[in-house]
Amino acid sequence: MPARRGIVAVVALAALLALWAWSTGPGDLISPMRFPSPPLVVAAFVQIATRGFAGATLWVHILSSLSLVIEGFLVAASTGTALGLAMGWSPRFAALVNPVFQLIRPIPPLAWIPLAILWLGLGAAAKILVIWFAAFVPAVINTESGVRDIPVHLLEAARMLGTPRLRMLREIVIPAALPQIFTGLRLSLQASWTTLVAAELVGSFYGLGHVLNAAQQDIDPEMIFVGMACVGLFGWLTTLLLAAVEAQSLGWHASSRSAAHA
Amino acid sequence: MPSPGRRMPLSAPERLLLGALGLALFFAVWLSCSLSGLVSPTFLPNPGTVLAQLAHLLRHPYAGHTLPEHLAASLLRYGSGLLLACLVGLPLGLLMGWFRLLDNIVTPIFNGLRFIAPIAWVPFAALWFGTGLGGPVLIIFTGAFPPALIGAYRGARLIDPQLIEAARMLGTPHHRMLTEILLPDAVPSIIAGLRVAAGLGWQSLIGAELIVVSSGIGYMMVQAQAAVSTKTVMAGIIAVGIVGTVIDGILRFGERTVRRRYGVVGTSA
């Protein structure tokens, strides 16, 4: 029953909030040096929003992280989807690229961070390179398998009717593979956030990861909390954005339900 | 497998040849970059130098330890974190699958935390449990816990209610229900979740070691980065990739064995 489910959810979250407020406040179970009480979090939020923290105000940090995630994601999504399409389209190309791809694929994306810093320093370019490494792989894999899973009769019919190749790509291959492409893109987006936060924690001048790092150095649990809450909030918002794009472009498709609970 | 561009699949020799060509091209570009002097070797050492450095690290300490010692430290943290994620995530996932109320309570909390990248737990992990074993273990846990839980949850939800009712009607005792109906049905999904958990846990470990610890493979790489030793960083990347592949290989083997034992051909979620 959805109504009952909703009520239980609200009660559970309210209970958690109450437990948090009580154990850090009147209950005095958890020291504020370990985990902040709600008023401390609000104070930290006001501080970073108005006076700033770690070199800038919250908005500057958010804008910096958000634009890097979006840029890195777009670069990875476009190149990854293109490579995946080519690999799914041409078995020759797939055979050529696959061994190199398999060589690079098992490397955890975060392991590229030191190399990216060596090559490009601590600025935006290094972050985008790392996000690219991380988000590229799921885009390629899912696009390729999406193209390969296209029902043969669709392609044969189009071929029989003499559809030109470019039109076939635009009107059959891409639309048919789109649901799987989006599956890959959702994973890519998640990977983009993880790698960006990690890269910012390792070294950066602005960004939410930089806030987390500075808060950790200062032993400032309430600021850590604010940083984490922002990472979660904007991770969620970008996921919603992607789901909206998916719903828009897959409105015709039976599986567009998947966008509803992305 | 049919493909849009061509009707006939490639023959095995053709595939091998093309694959070899691809690899040759990759290494040729890499080699020519570093040998031609176009890119300085500090920036991009040639493949031979990287492999030599990898061999060198096996016996000679870098950042305090040899490569196997760093890996042993990493694997200890990794094993503890993954074990903890399984010990908490699998039972909780199964229980959530079986008891609707628990599902309704935990799911909203879980969803609220889901979008926080595991690596963002680093500061709290360091604050609460230090940077030795405890902190990194928490970070691996936050990476590996969600897929472990989701795999077990899906597994429990996949069980055919008719089977349970039939067994109940026949008076099957509780422990036999668990071992003969519930677990076998849930196992493929659990294993699929574990494979994802193992991968994400390994990745989180590397992240944790880049940031907070003083030993382990990630620490070695970050030290090498600070010392501008590109060849050591690249050797580290290779070592991390190999260990990750071995871990996945072991789990893949486990997956096959379990599937055969329980005679399941279900799809992995």
CATH architecture of the largest domain in chain A: Orthogonal Bundle
Query: How much strand of chain B?
Result: under 5%
Number of domains of chain A: 2
Number of domains of chain B: 2
Alpha-carbon Rg of chain B, integer: 23 Å
CATH superfamily membership of the largest domain in chain B: MetI-like
In CATH, the topology of the largest domain in chain B is named MetI-like fold
Shape of chain B: globular
Shape of chain A: globular
**According to CATH, what is the class of the largest domain in chain A?**
Mainly Alpha
What fraction, in percent, of the residue positions of chain A are helical?
over 70%
Extended strand count of chain B: 0
User: Over the alpha carbons, how many angstroms does the gyration radius of chain A reach?
Assistant: 23 Å
Low-confidence stretches of chain B: 265-269
Which whole number gives the mean pLDDT of chain B? 87
Q: Spans of chain A of 5+ residues with little confidence (pLDDT < 50)?
A: 256-262
The helix content of chain B, as a percent range, equals over 70%
Oligomeric status of the shown chains? Answer: heterodimer
Largest sheet of chain B: none
Provide a count of the helices of chain B: 10
Q: What is the H/E string of chain B? A: HHHHHHHHHH
Describe the structure.
The complex is a heterodimer of chains A (262) and B (269). Chain A contains ten helices and no strands. Chain A is an all-alpha fold and 262 residues long. Chain A folds into two domains: 1-30; 36-259, Orthogonal Bundle (MetI-like fold), CATH 1.10.3720.10. The longest helix of chain A has 38 residues, at 165-202. Chain A starts with a helix and ends in a 13-residue tail after the last helix. The relative contact order of chain A is 0.13. The model of chain A is unreliable at 256-262 (pLDDT under 50). With 269 residues, chain B is mainly alpha-helical. Chain B folds into two domains: 11-44; 47-262, MetI-like (MetI-like fold), CATH 1.10.3720. Helices cover 77% and strands 0% of the residues of chain B. Chain B has helices spanning 12-35, 47-59, 67-98, 100-114, 122-129, 134-158, 161-169, 174-211, 217-226, 230-262. In chain B, helix 2 packs across helix 10 (230-262) and helix 6 packs antiparallel against helix 8 (174-211). Chain B is globular, with a radius of gyration of 23 Å.
